[in-house]
Amino acid sequence: IYVNNGFWDTYRTVWPAYSLLYPEVAAEISDGFVQQYRDGGWVARWSSPGYADLMTGTSSDVAFADAYVKGVKLPDPLGAYDAAVKNATVLPPSSAVGRKGLDTSTFLGYTSTNTGESVSWGLEGLINDFGIGTMAAKLAKDPATPENRRPQLEEESKYFLERSTHYGNLFNPKVGFFQGRAADGSFPTDFDPEAWGGDYTESNGWNFAFHAPHDGNGLANLYGGRDALAKKLDTFFSTPETATKPGGYGGTIHEMLEARDVRMGQLGQSNQVSHHIAYMYDWTGQQWKTAEKVREIMRRLYVGSEIGQGYPGDEDNGEMSAWYVLSSLGIYPLQVGSPNWAIGSPKFEQVTVKRTQGDLVVNAPGNSEKNIYVQGVTVNGQKHKSVSIDQSEIAGPTTVDFAMGDKPSDFGARAQDAPPSVTQGTEAPKPLKDATGPGRGTATATDLASGQDARALFDNTSRTSATFTSATPTVGFALSGTGQRATWYTITSGPKAGDPSAWRLEGSKDGGATWQTLDTRTGQVFPWRVQTRPFEIAHTNTFTTYRLVVTATVGGAAANLSEIELLTDGSKSENTGIKVSAAQAFETAEDASWTGTVATFSGGVGQGQDPSATASATIAWGDGTTSEGAIAAGDLGSFTVRGTHTWSKPGPYQPKVTVTAGGGSGSALGAATVHQASAPAYAAGFDSVCFGNVGDSVPCDGDRAGLSREALAAAGGVPGKLLTVPGTELRFSMPGIPVGQQDNATGAGQTLPVTLAPGATQLSLIGTATQKNQDTTATVRFTDGSTTSYRVQYGDWCGSPQFGNVVALEMAFRLNGTGTDSCRAKLFATAPLTVPAGKTVESITLPTQTGDPATAGRIHVFAVADNGSALGVTAGDDATATAGQAADIALGRAEGGVPAAGGYTARVEWGDGTVTEDAPVTAGPDGTASVKGSHTWAAPGAYTVRVLVSDSRSDVLSTLTVTVG
User: Fold this and answer.
1) Can you give the three-state secondary structure of 848-886, one letter per residue?
2) Residue among 841, 69, 103, 41 at smallest CA distance from 530
3) Number of compact structural domains in the chain
4) Is the peptide bond before 49 cis (omega within 30 degrees of 0)?
5) CATH number of the domain that 596 lies in?
6) CA angle at residue 901 from 898 to 903, to 5 degrees?
7) Do 568 and 454 have their domain in common?
8) Considering 675, 701, 734, which residue would you say is the last residue of a domain?
9) 294-322 burial, b if ≥16 CB within 10 A, otherwise e?
10) Based on the domain organization, do 661 and 720 belong to the same domain?
11) Looking at the domain assignment, is residue 447 inside a domain?
12) Measured distance CA(44)–CA(56) in Å, rounded
């Protein structure tokens, strides 16, 4: 087994250099890392020596693929491939392995800003997908590959190569750069490509502007053609890096200073992420500019003999040296994961590389500091017009002759001279899109188990799932507004047994009256839990409704699925009229500003028309107020409606969105739950601010890292919502603290007054540790004056549970400076304290920690959990009513928790789009309370009534159905 390799550093040049110079060593080392997969289930992203949550991308995928397609005889190529496919398709169990953001990026088509350093994770992932695609294609033809694996390899090759073109989903044409993109499809309004950090790892928007070297022709087309890409590169190299825009980092990092000292515009040659950029001119027909930049780098940046000189930045596992060695030979692995070498400008008149497979001789007579321009190339005496050399041409004894000159030539100027590319022609890539998803239609399913929802299979995340009662369910999706021609579909296995092994995909043009079979599969296997597998549709056409008919599962178990996609390029779509669909239900807190997508619609706006000029949207927020919605174009002929609102009272609300377009109109009712923002008594001991909004600088750790309110809400931690610590009976709610105010207690010796729920026998502190694991002791005081010690111990917020901790909430990213990073920050529940029988907890006195918080770290306590009688709400029985007549409805019964001085409170929305109102609560002699209300429905139908009941600390939502005749 081999260890200690940072693949983010090394995949770009070190691994290709191994393959070219030492193929036997490359084979042995790569198999050593594949052994990690065999033994531990994953290849480490940054082996040091085991798994570590460092850097972005699972770049062993493309590193090993590159070796294989370059002819290295890997001992276990299928094992290397399987390890890569697992990285690319399986929801990882922790942040130390796999790809971050994969739970949603597969289905959105990009890594959203819910993942820190999202642009880096997204674009690096697509480079790795390219390598997986090329490796699969070669494996499918490899004589050593078992026959039964070939069809799947061919199918997966097409899928991953297509997926590698999804970089366009992160490109914002309004600013001309790759940007972080929210899950709702929106881009940030404020953008400076020179600002570092945030969505970019150790770099900025400029250095990620060319981060699709595997598809240079597609990238050029995205910018408007070869000349446009050349102009973009020219601007890049002429825009100075001043190291004065730390952006999301909040302060200058050493990579910024090193990039400034390169003095080649924005080029951060001092760091790996920029190493390919000088070679991107090869895609533009201006290879001579690559020659200029590469020779300048070698001439100016690799000089000096003193300590600290000789390299423009960190050596980083051999990456800096490998770049120099390969560039000195006049070639570079611009398209890692392919057998292609891009041509640069050799440094020496003659070089002989002694290799076991035969010498590589590079001749460049007349080469000098002036004669840097390539006039022509021959390989083994054969004229070579392309600016790309295939590995097969230099695999054995090889002589490469460069003709050099002091002026630019037309070498490589023709379009056909460019390196091979995934995208052909002059059009930008058109990535496949998922036709399903929230707001795109209606999900249905048969044989759903109790409490399961078919919408979980189309909600753009593999973290949700649906369980069925049989092995033969049918799952359907009726598209809203447009029919689509799906060409691929994916199925994601569930978190437990019940994988489908056989099924039919069917389509209907008439709403399900008749069906056509589009694809049939048998004998299928999902090797891992929560794995996404792609399938190409055998018979395609445009349909308005699709369904997956499962005919068997593995072992006959009840089916369990996480997600289904229907992928289309949008061609041959059919407009079926304006249809408005509500966005996913969402949660927020009272008095907190919320911004997001409330609905989507399709139809009513012609292709190419400006939706803001031809359509309008009005949002009635369910509290008696209205506002205009902002309309923006989405995917596949759909449009989003966004709004901003602040609710002044807690409760369930039904925002109604009405869209007028093309002479027609439509509306939809959404669902929002607004939780109460209460601050418990122990908040008086809070002395630190850790939570902020994205863009805020919140130095929770004493340095520059903090926690995101957006990420907390996405993790289900909206203030006021009653939560349960997983695997326990401990319950808590996050306090409602306004932005910028102290929201947690550090170890400063303060005393926190605590009131546990009635009957509590255990308590736990919800918190985390900064800088490193923290092991402290607090003092718990009881109302009788006695005390006991309590170990308050937390694992580091970016790490794994320690000291018997349980992860209470895990957030997708962390604030860092004014940006974000990819740490999946965690709030832990401490190992619980058992309250002695007959005693009542009065307060908890935290320890006094010393040392600089920026280095020594601190505990951070956010909430108190206990196993007492939590607020419980039993929904009322389903009821009936008559349209146009007032009906008295028993809405439910509340008990437990810690009622406020005035008792429980309740708010109700009646399911018909009317304004949310207070619901009368009547206390009973047994401590419970009944919730009732009266309402008049205007029209017959089945209405889902939602009721939010609150005590002094938290609230609980319940629902019932009223059928109106």
Assistant:
1) ECCCCCCCCCCEEEEEEEECCCCCEEEECCCEEECCCCE
2) 103
3) 4
4) yes
5) 2.60.40.10
6) 65
7) yes
8) 675
9) bbbbbeebbeeeeeeeebbbeebbbbbbb
10) no
11) yes
12) 12
Cα torsion at 93, 96, 102, 105 (round to 10°)? Answer: 150
Q: Among 620, 572, 581, which residue's Cα sits nearest to residue 602?
A: 581
Residue 787 forms beta bridges with which residues? Answer: 781
The DSSP annotation for 131-166 comes to HHHHHHHHHHH-TTS-GGGHHHHHHHHHHHHHHTTG
Phi, psi of 906, rounded to the nearest 5 degrees? -145, 150
**479 neighbors 575 (Cβ within 8 angstroms):** no
Amino acid letter, 909: E
Cα-Cα-Cα-Cα dihedral sign, residues 211, 216, 220, 222: negative
Domain co-membership, 659 together with 742:
no
Length of the chain: 965
pTM of the model as a whole: 0.87
**Partners of 547 in the beta sheet?**
476, 506
Same domain, 789 and 668: no
Range of the domain at 779: 681-866
The Cα–Cα gap between 103 and 530 comes to 9
Packing angle of the helix pair 14-21, 60-69 (nearest 10 deg)? 20
Please check whether residue 494 lies inside any domain of the structure: yes
Rounded (5°) CA angle 446-449-453: 70
* Residues near 354 by beta carbon (within 8 Å), at least 6 away in sequence: none
C-alpha pair distances (Å), 378 with each of 501, 727, 920: 53, 67, 88
Q: Is 937 part of a structural domain of the chain?
A: yes
Tokens in use for 124? 């690096």
* Pairing mode of beta strands 955-964, 879-881: parallel
Cβ–Cβ < 8 Å for 13, 323:
yes
Q: Which two tokens stand for residue 617?
A: 């949207």
Residue 463's contacts (CB-CB under 8 Å, 6 or more residues apart) are: 91, 103, 562
Q: Which amino acid is at 860?
A: H
785 and 918 in a single domain? The answer is: no
Does 634 lie in the same domain as 524?
Answer: no
Euclidean distance between CA atoms 714 and 731, whole angstroms: 19
The DSSP bridge pattern shows strands 433-434 and 560-568 to be: antiparallel
At 580, list the tokens.
Answer: 């408005």
Which of 353, 448, 432 is closest to 398 using CA atoms? Answer: 353
Using CA atoms, how far apart are residues 906 and 932, in angstroms rounded to an integer?
A: 9
Q: Which of 866, 896, 913 delimits the end of a domain?
A: 866
Instruction: List per-block mean pLDDT (blocks of 10 residues) for the chain, which spans 965 residues.
Output: 84 97 96 95 92 92 98 98 99 92 97 94 98 99 98 99 98 97 91 95 97 98 98 98 92 94 96 97 98 97 75 89 97 98 98 96 97 98 96 96 98 96 96 93 95 95 96 96 94 97 98 98 98 99 98 98 97 85 92 93 72 87 97 87 96 97 89 94 97 93 94 93 96 95 98 96 98 98 98 96 96 89 93 97 98 97 96 96 97 93 95 97 94 98 97 94 97
Handedness of CA 644, 645, 651, 655 (dihedral sign): negative
How far, CA to CA in Å, does 139 sit from each of 251, 268, 420, 490? 47, 36, 20, 22
Helix, strand counts (H, E) of the chain = 16, 60
713 and 847 belong to one structural domain: yes
Residue 809 identity: L
837 belongs to a structural domain: yes
Q: Looking at 418-575, which runs of residues are DSSP E strands?
A: 433-434, 441-445, 466-467, 474-479, 482-483, 488-493, 500-508, 516-521, 532-536, 545-553, 560-568, 574-575
CATH label of the domain that carries residue 495: 2.60.120.260
Give me the residues paired with residue 887 across strands. 935
For residues 660 and 737, membership in a common domain is answered with no
Q: What is the pLDDT of residues 601-650, one digit of tens each?
A: 887 776 666 776 789 999 999 999 999 999 988 888 888 999 999 999 99
